[in-house]
Specification:
The protein has helices at about 5-20, 30-40, 55-70, 100-115, 120-135, 170-175, 180-185, 200-215, 255-270, 280-285, 310-320, 340-345, 370-380, 390-395, 410-420, and strands at about 50, 75-80, 90, 95, 140-145, 160-165, 195, 220, 230-235, 240-245, 245-250, 295-300, 300-305, 330, 355, 385, 405. It is of the alpha/beta class. The protein has 2 domains: about 5-285, Mur-like, catalytic domain (UDP-N-acetylmuramoyl-L-alanine:D-glutamate ligase); about 295-420, Mur ligase, C-terminal domain (Protein-Tyrosine Phosphatase, Chain A), CATH 3.90.190.20. The protein starts with 6 loop residues before the first helix and ends in an 8-residue tail after the last helix.
Length: about 425
């Protein structure tokens, strides 16, 4: 039997990799650059596009991947975290990569990962570059993990780099103000290469554009200055709008998906030949975009990975726009180091009740105190219940409302998708 298909050996290899997670980020490029040198610098063999931002990165990556694939290119996409299966982080032509190349990489390189002190995210980033190089992809879509300037993915010299939006997240690493966070995110912009600024707030996007120019990026394109989207309509099937004389549709529902679609369209327009995609062709492919965990629906269930107040606010806005059958109950588990109070406040006006629980895959070091969240919710006057056991919470939620929103973190959404038959597939 092929050793790569030995489930026990594969799981053991992944367990050794996940042991590299400590709950603490080690920002910097020295370790990942050293490891990549030993691999033969696979990131230099692949044309890339690079995306950063507090929210919207995943949607932009999915849009870029869909359009480029429809143009006939072999596309690798590296995103994080995964929802259900580790393989989701490395997609080729929209499908998670097979277990065999992951196993082979880990079997060969885990000793060096341990010797070099490479972190989990650094190791997975290097692995992604190697997997894409081995698969001979035409182009790779690369999403940052945290920040930009010191993120492990920032070893690339991309054909184009884009920043979606800036919000308060990971402030212990990126700074306590939006301008400081923006400058860190703008660290992905490179001299002489196109920089796309998607931030809607004028003051914050000015910081991004200023930093892009300071770093020598060229051209610097601000999406909001290239035309206003009008006639926006949000339905359960997606979002439509008019822009630059074109009727645009994306398969992703939500008013915020207009901004994400425009970032993707502008990045595609900024790509050099042979990857440049004419606007009309890009718009045609954009309607096919799907992304599990971003207001994806299955029957009475809605799954959304909103894990900060800004993300929860757009989830609430999309709920109001789509108006699913009510009452709507939110099944919520948030990591303890996130602003869970802000998340609950953002969701409360759009739901009729909360069922608070604990996501099984959430790291123990980052677990929230659900009982504390319950007390907070009730003090705010919201209808809220606590069911610490996740499986019991999944069984109970449908009896509390006609629609169940599962949200609060990737862990929460992924754990629910792994347990619910027929939930949106990730590959």
């Amino acid at each position: 039997m092929d050793r790569a298909l030995n489930t026990g050996a594969y799981r053991a290899a992944l367990d050794a990799l996940f042991a590299r997670t400590t709950g603490q980020w080690k920002l910097g490029l020295e370790r990942v650059e050293g490891f990549l040198r030993e691999l033969g610098d696979p990131h230099r063999l692949i044309p890339t596009v690079h995306i950063a931002g507090t929210n919207g990165k995943g949607s932009v990556c999915a849009s870029l991947e869909t359009v480029l694939r429809r143009r006939g290119f072999r596309v690798g996409t590296y995103t994080s975290p995964h929802l259900v299966d580790f393989r989701e982080r490395f997609r080729i032509d929209g499908a998670p990569i097979d277990e065999a190349p992951i196993f082979d990489f880990l079997e060969r390189w885990t000793p060096r990962v341990e010797t070099l002190g490479v972190t989990f995210f650094e190791a997975t980033t290097a692995m992604g570059f190697q997997l894409f190089a081995d698969a001979q992809v035409d182009i790779a879509v690369i999403e940052t993990g945290l920040g930009g300037r010191l993120d492990a993915t920032n070893v690339v010299q991309p054909l184009v780099a884009g920043v979606t939006s800036i919000g308060f997240d990971h402030m212990e690493w990126l700074g306590e103000t939006l301008p400081k966070i923006a400058r860190e995110k703008a660290g992905i912009f490179k001299p002489g290469l196109p920089a796309i600024v998607g931030e809607p707030d004028p003051a914050v996007r000015h910081v991004l554009a200023e930093e892009a120019a300071r770093r020598g990026a060229s051209p610097v394109r601000i999406v909001a200055e290239e035309g206003e989207a009008t006639a926006i309509r949000v339905t359960a099937a997606g979002t439509t709008f008019r822009w630059q004389g074109l009727e645009v549709a994306t398969g992703l529902p939500g008013h915020h998906q207009v901004a994400n679609a425009l970032v993707a369209l502008t990045m595609l327009d900024a790509l050099p030949a042979p990857f440049h995609v004419p606007r009309e062709a890009a718009v045609t492919a954009l309607a096919e975009v799907q992304l599990a965990g971003r207001f994806s629906r299955q029957g009475r269930w809605i799954f959304d990975v909103a894990h900060n107040p800004a993300g929860a606010a757009v989830t609430a806005e999309t709920l109001r726009a789509v108006a699913p059958p009510g009452p709507v109950v939110a099944l919520v588990s948030v990591l303890g180091d996130k602003d869970w109070r802000g998340i609950l406040r953002a969701l409360a006006p759009a739901v009729q009740g909360f069922l608070l629980t604990n996501a099984p895959t959430a790291p123990a070091s980052r677990a929230w105190v659900a009982a504390e969240a319950l007390a907070f919710a009730r003090d705010e006057g919201w209808q809220a219940e606590l069911e610490p056991d996740f499986d019991r919470a999944l069984a109970r939620a449908p009896s509390m409302g006609e629609t169940v929103l599962v949200t609060g973190s990737f862990h929460t959404v992924g754990d629910a998708m792994a347990r619910l038959p027929g939930s949106p597939a990730t590959g």
